[in-house]
Amino acid sequence: MKTRTVRGITVLAAAGATAFAAPALASAEPIDFQPIPIGCPAGIGVVDTETALAEEDAEPGQIEYEIEQEGSGGGQISWVNLRTLQLGGGVLPEVAEGEEPAVALQTGEGLVVSAVWGAHQNAEGQGCFLLPGVDLTNVPPAAAPDEDENTDPTVE
């Protein structure tokens, strides 16, 4: 039941967010709709996503999710690839001193709708719950290999 509810929320969020988020599909920018922290007055850092085109941390077919706040940690990520209809999820790492929580997830290429949500601890040590923040990210395909004249069958 819980998984079905999360999937339903993800699909509804995708439909609603598509109209607003289409202009900013592939970048290393804050997610389109930031999660809302409940129970931590100091708040949380900005959540962003990065793809292989934007940063070196993500490989082709991956999205890196990161909370821009050192010393914070925790949170869930649920995603659906609208091109392949694959579903997946991941967990942001727990608190690590001097580190920003980040995780790279293999989503495959295509348009990916994701939600960042769940239990989180901010840098002030306050525990909170994140109401889902939603993002649309266009994950680019791997770059085509450079043509080498030694491997090109048309070159003699």
From TrEMBL:
Signal peptide feature range: 1-26
Alphabetically ordered keywords of this record: Signal
Protein name: Lipoprotein
Organism of origin: Rhodococcus pyridinivorans KG-16
